[in-house]
Design brief:
Elements: E1 2-7, E2 13-19, E3 22-29, H1 32-35, H2 43-63, E4 74-80, H3 84-101, E5 105-109, H4 110-116, E6 131-136, E7 141-148, E8 151-157, H5 163-173, H6 180-188, H7 214-236, H8 244-250, H9 253-282, E9 286-290, H10 297-310, E10 313-315, H11 327-341
Parallel strand pairs: 1-4, 4-5, 6-9, 9-10
Antiparallel strand pairs: 1-2, 2-3, 6-7, 7-8
């Protein structure tokens, strides 16, 4: 069977075509450059860009195959959750194609699709149930008990900001580019000294699997203000505020890489602590990463090392592109939903 999959829940326009579990075409149009002026995804802007890109991407993905639209058997599209203006654009397109071609429409949950991205280019047998899955994106931060293929139990979630949102906002605080995850990680990699625990490690209750990162953002802001004040006093003898101009003048590059290093390590320590706590509480032997966090090489290395020590099987998406928003994850989830209902 052939599945046409759409993913446009946020800022990337992505379409994929599957032959059963085999991805035969994928095309994604990034909107990052258009969102750089605001350093954040503005929903209305993203939706207009999706509307402009939809048919171009559809033409590109069909051109990668020998198929025409009337040969497609199923249409799948992200239905929720995420940015409603972006979702509405593609739901309209996907449902219209489904209606015109008289093909079944498969609605897809965005969070579940990211978890299923771990099955791309893998046999189902490589995943051991039950498993504990950590998901982190720009807005979401959860731990799930993955009991069986379609049975997820929420164990913990962020009480305010997600870890990935914190990365974006820390990058903005030091006046670097959006998205913040890759930028902060790159700066952190240039720091060659020991981890000093400049920022506090807050785990909430001892046995809690919930997260909170708003306190960490506040700690970073206070540290930046403190360093700017010290450096400005040393240079012009008058205290200055943490404006963009003053930060460029008085926050040194060494300060930036140290702040990013301390911040990233604190986040990673919190995420790994919670992940392995969940694994211990539920007595499972398999752990999984999903969403943008699964592209962080340092986090994967640390979890892999700890998993090897404790005897856990560890899975994350087989390619970095599958950690981002992409239509391939929509298509693979649609396939297993179709098989389940047959």
């Amino acid at each position: 069977m052939y599945i046409l999959a759409f993913e446009t829940s946020c800022d990337d326009t992505s379409i994929a075509i599957f032959e059963d579990t085999r991805l035969i075409a994928l095309d994604t149009k990034s909107q990052i450059k258009e969102h750089l002026p605001t350093c954040w995804v503005v929903p209305e802007v993203a939706a207009r860009l999706h509307a402009n890109n939809v048919f171009l991407v559809l033409e590109n993905v069909l051109a990668q195959t020998w198929l025409s639209l009337d040969q497609i058997d199923y249409i799948a599209c992200t239905e929720d959750p995420w940015l409603l203006p972006s979702l509405y654009v593609w739901l309209t397109v996907a449902k219209t194609i489904s209606k015109l071609l008289n093909k079944p429409f498969i609605p897809i949950n965005h969070i579940q699709a990211h978890i299923f991205a771990n099955l791309l280019e893998r046999d189902l047998g490589e995943l051991e149930f039950p498993s504990v899955c950590l998901t982190v994106s720009g807005w979401h931060n959860e731990i799930y008990l993955w009991k069986s293929l379609f049975e997820l139990e929420l164990l913990g979630q962020t009480q305010d900001d997600s870890a990935w949102e914190a990365f974006d906002k820390v990058a903005k605080m030091i006046w670097e580019w959006f998205p913040g995850g890759p930028v902060v990680s790159k700066l952190a990699s240039e720091y060659n000294w020991e981890f000093k625990w400049i920022f506090p490690k807050v785990l909430l209750d001892k046995e809690s699997l919930n997260f909170s990162f708003s306190w960490l953002k506040s700690s970073v802001k206070r540290e930046i203000d403190k360093r700017i004040a010290i450096l400005s006093t040393e240079n012009i003898s008058t205290k200055v505020s943490a404006t963009r101009e003053n930060a460029i003048n008085f926050l040194t590059y060494e300060d930036k890489i140290e702040i990013c290093f301390e911040f990233e390590n604190t986040v990673i320590d919190i995420l790994t602590t919670k992940l392995f706590l969940a694994a211990e509480q539920k007595r499972i032997k398999s752990i999984v990463l999903a969403w943008g966090v699964s592209a962080n090489s340092k986090l994967k290395r640390i979890i892999s090392e700890e998993a090897n020590k404790k005897g856990y099987k560890f899975l994350y998406p087989s390619k970095p592109v599958y950690s981002q928003d992409n239509a391939a994850m929509v298509g693979i989830l649609a396939y297993y939903k179709i098989i389940k209902n047959k």
